[in-house]
Write a structure and sequence with these properties.
Radius of gyration: 22 Å
Structural class: alpha/beta
CATH class of the largest domain: Alpha Beta
Distance between the termini: 48 Å
Largest sheet: 8 strands, mixed
Number of strands: 15
Order of helices and strands: EHEEHEHEHEEEHEHHEHEHEHEHEE
Helix content: 25-40%
CATH topology of the largest domain: Rossmann fold
Strand order of the largest sheet: 2-3-1-4-8-7-5-6
């Protein structure tokens, strides 16, 4: 690895940035600042390969270009003019600019794209190709802050490569990993997801326990198209981490699902992820949870339906009410983590359980809460 340090912007779930920051630190990154939905870190340049291949909770990894204050669009123009991209490009690449803007401004995201694009095109003579560029320049305009980076990941890291069955309301693998980290779950602890859907939480738990890198099944990264891509070095990094895999490790993981098609989908996904041999999937109803728990359980981590895409609001309320009753009946001492957008869940648990933590997060555009409590 080179000794020169580079800065990276690592995007993650809003409200859970501290967990991603811990993960970044554990693999050699030095966290400089935590921003909403982002972790700013410093590391040797080759950390780009490590972060993309091994981080379980990150969405994308960007090469940091700037993080500055502004007042007007002209200020943004001046900031971009001062950025030197020469070490990242050969002059033959295509490029595109994408902007996310938060707050009230006298300009639009399209205006930012136009200004940034014109400057890059004039300075480096690169061709614009918006659909599938070699270089995706990402900018964030957050109130009076302008951030800019180069996307090294391509499509998000939550697209692991093992999911062949698509649930109608899928949970991102990155969120699943964050829930497991928040729970404090360890591989030796029996874990159940009583509304497991397509099995994502349990599959991520198995990958975590066996040290299977989250990038193991992923076929593509954007950095494959960069002038500085060192394929042999990246293959060496993959070999290093792949040697740590424990393919034969068996851990107590259990999934319960009401609908057969989702259960079969979970089995297909777990098979594709090479972890089906360590997860027991059961056809069952979380409203009658105690009937199915013929084994010890230390942790329950689940993302129940919200009544948006699956079932009605009334049905979902009954599900939550009976699920909570079952927890109280037969899971004494267990740690529970539930992610839901339903506000009434708090009223169901606040007086009956020891509340350990409540997190407010943004799951896409949906304000959501994560409840961690002890039975």
């Amino acid at each position: 690895m080179t000794k020169d340090l580079e800065r990276f912007i690592i995007t993650t779930t809003w409200g859970l940035e501290d967990l991603t920051a811990e993960e970044v630190e554990s693999f050699g990154g030095n966290v400089i600042e935590i921003l909403p939905g982002k972790v700013l870190a410093e590391a040797p340049f080759e950390f780009m390969y490590v972060a993309n291949y091994i981080l379980r909770t990150a969405e994308k990894v960007y090469i940091y270009l700037t993080h500055d204050k502004f007042k007007t669009l002209e200020d943004i123009k001046a900031i971009v003019e001062d950025i030197d991209l020469s070490k990242y490009i050969s002059g033959q690449e295509t490029f595109g600019v994408k902007t996310k803007r938060f707050g009230n401004h006298s300009f639009t995201s399209i205006d930012v794209n136009k200004i940034v694009g014109e400057i890059i095109q004039r300075k480096y003579r690169l061709n614009v190709y918006l659909d599938n560029p070699d270089l995706e320049i990402k900018t964030w305009v957050i109130e009076d802050v302008f951030i800019m980076g180069i996307n090294t990941t391509g499509y998000s890291l939550y697209r692991r490569g093992y999911r062949i069955y698509q649930h109608p309301a899928p949970l991102k693998p990155t969120i699943s990993s964050l829930l497991l980290k928040l729970a404090g779950w360890k591989p030796q602890d029996p874990l159940v997801d009583p509304m497991c859907g397509s099995g994502t939480i349990l599959i991520e738990a198995a990958l975590m326990a066996r040290n299977i890198p989250p990038g193991y099944f992923r076929p593509y990264y954007q950095f494959y198209r960069f002038k500085f891509f060192d394929r042999s070095f990246f293959e060496e990094i993959k070999r290093t981490f792949n040697k740590r895999i424990h393919w034969d490790l068996r851990i107590p993981l259990y999934g319960i699902e009401l609908y057969k098609n989702h259960l079969y989908g979970a089995i297909s996904n777990a098979t594709m992820a090479k972890v089906i041999d360590t997860i027991s999937f059961l056809l069952g109803d979380a409203r009658k949870l105690c009937q199915f728990l013929k084994f010890d359980v230390d942790y329950v981590v689940t993302n129940p339906p919200y009544g948006l895409k699956i079932a009605s609001k009334r049905t979902v309320y009954e599900l939550y009410e009976r699920f909570v009753t079952e927890l109280d009946k037969c899971l004494s001492g267990a740690t529970i983590v539930v992610m839901t957008a339903e506000e009434y869940f708090w009223t169901l648990i606040k007086d009956s359980f020891k509340i350990l933590e409540v997190r407010e997060i943004m799951y896409g555009e949906l304000p959501t809460k994560i409840y961690k409590f002890k039975v």
